[in-house]
Amino acid sequence: MFRGMFSIPQGSAVQPTDLLPIPLTEDSAEEFRALCWVVYALPNEIHLQSTRGADIPRLANAAKMCHKYTLPVFEGWALDMIRNQCQPGSLDYLKTCPSDILHTLMGLALLCNHGRLLSLVETNWIFRARSGELPCNSALAAGEKYNRRQFLADVYYHLNKQLYASNLSSGQAFSDLNLTDQQLLRLLSGHALLSNFWYHLRRDPLPHYPAIGCMSHHICILVWTATPWASTEGSDVLAGLNSARSYVASTLSARCALQ
Questions:
Q1: Which residue in 33, 70, 97, 163 is deepest, having the highest Cβ count within 10 Å?
Q2: CA dist., res. 212 & res. 193, Å (int)
Q3: Cβ-count burial of 181 within 10 angstroms (0-12 exposed, 13-18 middle, 19+ buried)?
Q4: What residues contact 61, with CB distance under 8 A and at least 6 apart?
Q5: DSSP E strands, 145-206
Q6: Distance between CA atoms of 117 and 76, rounded to whole angstroms?
Q7: Residue 100 and residue 134: Cα distance in Å, rounded?
């Protein structure tokens, strides 16, 4: 299996021997054991991976190593077994696994370009963070590491709603959020921008857009004034926008409001 896979390091004064093995750069012993396991696994071990007894961390290490060493059949099998455990239904591994496994699976899905697995990981992580089951700071750390901007936006938006619901004291400040200084700055900046947008959207005069065919702007103003804004007072801007959009869309004559 491994004959010729690893070349002798170049420029080394001492040539590798049985006593000086060839180093495997960036591969841990655990990861390499997982690679050996997936290649030589017995039939009963293979079958076990399609049941609740599946070893997801070992499968993840195996998929990572098979991707690195170009073993697509083994890589595909390991990813399929992981995805099957993560599907909504009887197994639903992602609903109970710790955040460090979610972090690992997010990186693996991106490495192997597995969009379905990535979507399952992010959706479940956001759900569990919103329910308070998992801390948001672990989700933010993963989103920052892998530059998942929409994922980060969803987590920060949840934290933004928490700011409205929390009873903050001057001594406590934001310490309970367990955010880094940079993360807290992003949260508070986004909170200020959303609050400012929400305030002006509801209170500023509705602009006139004659270029889109508005002939009776007073109708647009009447519709806009009567729009039933959500009573969230900015704690959930998206809910408020969706409520306003649904109402305005039902009145096709209010062209400027639709704009």
A1: 97
A2: 28
A3: exposed
A4: 30, 31, 33, 34, 35
A5: none
A6: 12
A7: 11
Tens digits of residue pLDDT in 12-38: 555 655 556 666 778 899 999 999 999
Estimate to the nearest angstrom the gap between the alpha carbon of 74 and the chain centroid: 26
- Is residue 206 within 8 A of residue 256, CB to CB? The reply is yes
| CA-wise closest residue to 238 among 197, 209, 184 | 197
Q: Is 257 within 8 Å of 224 (Cβ atoms)?
A: yes
Q: Are 247 and 239 in contact (CB under 8 A)?
A: no
Q: What percent of the chain has pLDDT over 90?
A: 47
Residue 135, Cβ density class (10 Å: 0-12 exposed, 13-18 middle, ≥19 buried): middle
Show the tokens assigned to 84. 């099957």
Length of the chain as a residue count: 259
Alpha-carbon distance of 23 to 136, in angstroms, equals 38
